[in-house]
Amino acid sequence: MTETSLDAGPRQSRQAARQQAITEVVMAEGTVRIEQLAERFGISVMTVHRDLDGLEARGLLRKSRGVATAMSTSLVESSDVYRSNRQTGEKEAIALAALEFVEPGQAVMLDDSTSTFHLVPHLRTRRPLTVITNTLTVMDSLRGVSGITLLGLGGQYFNWCSAFMGGITTAAIEALRADLFIMSTAAITDDVAFHQSLQTNDIKRAMFDSSTRRILIVDHTKFEKRALHALMPLTAFDAVIVDSATGASDIARLRDKGVEVVVARTQRQAGVA
Length: 273
Prior knowledge:
It is a single chain. The protein is of the alpha/beta class. The chain is 37% helix and 23% strand. The chain contains eleven helices and 15 strands. It has helices spanning 11-29, 34-41, 45-57, 80-83, 88-99, 114-117, 136-142, 167-174, 198-209, 248-256, 267-272; strands at residues 31-33, 62-64, 67-69, 107-110, 129-133, 148-152, 156-158, 163-165, 178-183, 187-189, 192-195, 211-217, 229-233, 239-243, 261-264. Helix 2 (34-41) packs across helix 3 (45-57).
């Protein structure tokens, strides 16, 4: 795609189209050098920088040392848009396994993870339910669904995770009690859940403390990642659901520590079996 193909229409429309195209390229490749983006779209490096500044302000991409990236680091989580397109088959299998822990009549608390979002469409099969969440995408998906009482947690809105966080959100969580909390995490190091953001940790810890049962859902890539802030050990959860690509040594080690590990299989794997 060249700038010429994006150049029709008013300047604002051209910029929006170009930024959308840049976003798609970076999210597909993970990391792209700024000079490569300028060459690919036939625009100046300065224009790329301006576009990336706008995308960064929206929480979609980041600039770092001459590159545009959608990938997470130990200090910064990637956007929910980028994460939602990763390990989709594994996340769907994990979500279906998590559904087995949901019972009609429960109050279920959901975090802002894209793994948890895969569970949302299936919650209709467990009605009536009360769903408590700080995540705007979950609210949008469940609003108006009969048989589901939706409790939306407000606060300061963060684009990069499409969720509300902060003291207002934490106070609202502490005033509630849920039967079940389902969450994911950014990274697992030494069998401890980690996140890049202290604000994320504060919200998830409050949700954890306000729930009777706590389920952690993670795909195998989380065991390979690093993040800065420790949340809690995996032994604190009532169950940890992983995908079938998770290392056998990781599963065995967690089970040796007394963790209930559920290995979710994809639909293709289940069909073969």
